[in-house]
């Protein structure tokens, strides 16, 4: 009988693997047996994030990578492939952005945010394809947002303007969902699965201190609570595992029911 959630034979690459959500995703992948490479720009942040967890040591690695730079992505993929002889899963979780105002955002801020949320994902997808072709299969897991599906409910942000979701973020995340479908169709005959995971309200610890804002978020979900990083991690294990071998082109929404209302 196949152990469908066993990741022991798999090499997984994750961008943005030491952030608020990335940490829980990375740890869960390792705990389920995967050998995980965190692709990022700051080894100190990586070490600070994971150095207290000795259980991760033998299957967790850092590879310096700038997802805004194609050459950096190519070099990282080539290096890991030369060491491991395989890459099974790519998780596109990293993003970068600046600017917030729907009315005063500059052209440069708009372009930067679109690139940081959509262009970076495209570059990583494009550069992993040759490796998956050689291996005759692979899995890509992209990360979108509920604001790639619905508009912000602006009353939530009344009194909390610093938390307002910017317009380029949702636009780019909607693009991630469409790009997932495009590449799922384009790569399916090569046994390459492409899916998206779409988180809902998962505020960071620094945001949680604002109790009024958290209550406003909670009121918009069906479960009347916000998400914790651990609530998200299992979906990545599922899509990285053999349990999802017949799933592609899909968007798995994990939002406590926010977008169901």
Automatic annotation (TrEMBL):
GO molecular function: oxidoreductase activity, acting on the CH-OH group of donors, NAD or NADP as acceptor
SUPFAM superfamilies for this protein: NAD(P)-binding Rossmann-fold domains (SSF51735)
Record's protein name: Gluconate 5-dehydrogenase
InterPro entries: NAD(P)-bd_dom_sf, SDR_fam
UniProt family annotation: Belongs to the short-chain dehydrogenases/reductases (SDR) family.
GO biological process: fatty acid elongation
């Amino acid at each position: 009988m196949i152990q469908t959630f066993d990741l022991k034979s798999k090499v997984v690459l994750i961008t943005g693997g030491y952030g608020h959500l990335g940490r829980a995703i990375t740890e869960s992948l390792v705990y389920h047996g995967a050998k995980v490479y965190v692709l990022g720009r700051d080894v100190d942040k990586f070490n600070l994030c994971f150095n207290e967890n000795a259980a991760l040591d033998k299957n967790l690695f850092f590879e310096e990578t700038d997802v805004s730079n194609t050459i950096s992505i190519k070099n990282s993929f080539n290096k890991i492939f030369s060491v491991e002889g395989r890459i099974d899963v790519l998780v596109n979780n990293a993003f970068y952005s600046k600017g917030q105002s729907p009315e005063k955002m500059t052209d440069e801020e708009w372009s930067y945010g679109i690139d940081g949320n959509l262009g970076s994902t495209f570059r990583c997808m494009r550069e992993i394809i040759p490796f998956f072709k050689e291996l005759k299969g692979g899995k890509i897991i992209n990360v979108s947002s509920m604001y790639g599906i619905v508009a912000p409910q602006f009353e939530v942000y009344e009194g909390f303007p610093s938390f307002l979701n910017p317009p380029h973020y949702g636009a780019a995340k909607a693009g991630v969902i469409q790009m997932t479908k495009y590449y799922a169709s384009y790569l399916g005959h090569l046994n390459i699965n492409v899916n998206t995971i779409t988180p809902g309200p998962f505020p960071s610890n620094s945001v949680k201190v604002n109790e009024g804002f958290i209550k406003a978020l909670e009121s918009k979900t069906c479960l009347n609570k916000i998400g914790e990083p651990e609530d998200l991690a299992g979906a990545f294990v599922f899509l990285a595992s053999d349990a999802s071998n017949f799933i592609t082109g899909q968007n798995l929404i994990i939002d406590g029911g926010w977008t169901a209302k």
